[in-house]
Amino acid sequence: MTRKLFIKTYGCQMNVYDSERMAEAMGGQGYVVTETPDDADMILLNTCHIREKAAEKVYSELGRYKGLKAAKPDLKIGVAGCVAQAEGEEIMRRQPMVDLVVGPQSYHRLPELEAKARTGAKALDTDFPEEDKFEHLTARPKAKRGPTAFLTVQEGCDKFCAFCVVPYTRGAELSRPAERVMREARDLVERGVREITLLGQNVNAYHGHERGLAGLIRELETIDGLARIRFTTSHPNDMDDALIAAHGECEKLMPYLHLPVQAGSDRILKRMNRQHTAEQYLRLIERLRAARPDLHLSGDFIVGFPEETEADFRDTLALIEAVEYGSAFSFKYSERPGTPAAERAQVPEDEKDDRLQRLQALLTKQQRALQDAMVGREVRVLFEKPGRLPGQMVGKSEYLHAVHVEAQGIGAGDIAPVRIESSGPNSLGGVLMAM
Ligand code: 5AD
Ligand code: SF4
C-alpha cells in the first residue's frame, strides 16, 4: 500500500539533506513524498534549535494539524531534528498528538519507529548510537535527480562557542569515512548530479580522509562527470594549509567560501570562545585570497552578544568593511538555555534591532556591489531549471549568483559560459556565449 509522507524542514542545509534521506528510508516502507500535509498519512517536522522559540514554533505548527489528526486518526505525526533531540520527551508529554520523536543521530531507525507508532504506541529515540546512520539508511534509489546535491560528511561540533547549542544537540564531531562518501558521491553523479556541496556543522574539521577535507576534495575531483565541489560550514581555526592550497589548485572547487567569524571585536570573540582574534581571521582571508584571488566570501554574524558595546559592534562593521562579503547571514543574539552566554548580561532588544539593521545595510550594500561588478564579466553557469519567462533557464555561477539566460537547447545539468549583462535585486541576467 502506498502511503504519503509530508516533511516540513526547518533550519540549515544539513536538515535538508537529512529530510531527503528520511524520505528515501520511508520509501522502503511504501511511503511517497507529498507536498501538502492535507493528504498525508504521516507528517514529519524536521526541526531546528539554533535560535530562540524553537520549541514554541514546533508547538504552534503541531496545532495546525489538530484538525487533520481529528479527521484521520490514522495520521502519524513525528518530530525530528534538533528540537526533538533537546526536548523530545517534553514534546511528547505536552502534545499527545505526537506519535514519534526521532533525534538527528537515529534517522536510520525511523522505519522501526514508524512501525511501532502504527501499533498505536509512542515511539521515541534520541540516542547517540555508535553506528553510522547514513550507512544504515536504505540505499538511495537509482532515480534521476537534479544537477545539485548536498552530501553530509561530518556532523557535530567540539568547538563550544558560548552562544551555540550545536555541541549539545548534535554531539561530538564525527566524520564519515572517505570511501563511503566517495561511494555516495559516485552514485549521485550516476544519477545526474554535477555539483556536490559537502556538509558538516564544522565541515573543515573533517577527518574521515587521512589528508582531511582537502584530501577528500582531491579524491572527489577524480570522479568524471562531477563538475563542481563546494563545502559548508567552516570554522576559521580548521582552515589548514592543505585546504587553503586546495582553493588555488583544485579546479572543481568553486571560488566561494562560507567562513563565519560572528563578530569583529576581540573582546567579544574571546567571550564567544571563538579561539581566534579578528586580526587572525583577516590574515586567513588574505592567505585564501592569495591562493584564489577571485574568492567570494560569505559569513555569519551575531549582533547583541552579551556585553557587546557600541564600540565592539563598530569593530564588527570595520571587519566587514575590510573583508567585503559576497553574501552573509546575520542574527540577533538569542539566549539559549544551557549555553554559557545565556548567563551573562544581555543587550537590550531595541539595541539589538538597531545594530542588526545597520549591519544588514552594510552587508546588503557589499553584496549588491559585488553582484553589480559581475556585469560585463564572463562566468560559467550550471543550469538548474527553467526560469519564469518562456525560453529562460536559471542556474548558478561559480560564485553562487543566480543567473538568468534566454537559452535555446540548454538543459538542466549543462554548464555553459555566459556574459553577464544586467544585475537585478536577487539575480544576474546574461547571454550565452559560444562554447
Ligand atoms: N543566537 C544567534 N545566532 C546564533 N547562531 C548560532 N547560535 C546562535 C544564537 N544563540 C548563528 C551563528 C551560526 C549560525 C548557524 O547561527 O551565526 O554561525
Ligand atoms: Fe556552533 Fe559553529 Fe561554534 Fe560549533 S563552531 S559551536 S556549530 S557556532
Report on the architecture of this protein.
The chain is an alpha/beta fold. The protein folds into 3 domains: 3-125, Methylthiotransferase, N-terminal domain (Rossmann fold), CATH 3.40.50.12160; 133-372, Alpha-Beta Horseshoe (pyruvate-formate lyase- activating enzyme), CATH 3.80.30; 378-432, Nucleic acid-binding proteins (OB fold (Dihydrolipoamide Acetyltransferase, E2P)), CATH 2.40.50. It is 35% helix and 22% strand. It contains 14 helices and 19 strands. The protein has helices at 13-27, 54-63, 66-71, 81-94, 110-118, 133-136, 166-169, 178-190, 212-220, 241-249, 266-271, 278-291, 310-323, 349-372, and strands at residues 3-9, 31-33, 42-47, 76-80, 100-102, 123-125, 148-152, 154-155, 174-175, 195-199, 228-232, 256-258, 296-303, 327-332, 378-386, 392-396, 402-406, 415-423, 428-432. The strands form 5 sheets. Strands 2-1-3-4-5-6 form a 6-stranded parallel sheet, sandwiched between helices. Strand 4, helix 4 and strand 5 (100-102) form a beta-alpha-beta unit. Helix 9 (212-220) runs parallel beside helix 10 (241-249). It is globular, with a radius of gyration of 22 Å. The model has no long low-confidence stretch (mean pLDDT 94). Bound molecules: 5'-deoxyadenosine and iron/sulfur cluster. The site of iron/sulfur cluster (SF4) has 10 residues, from helix 7.
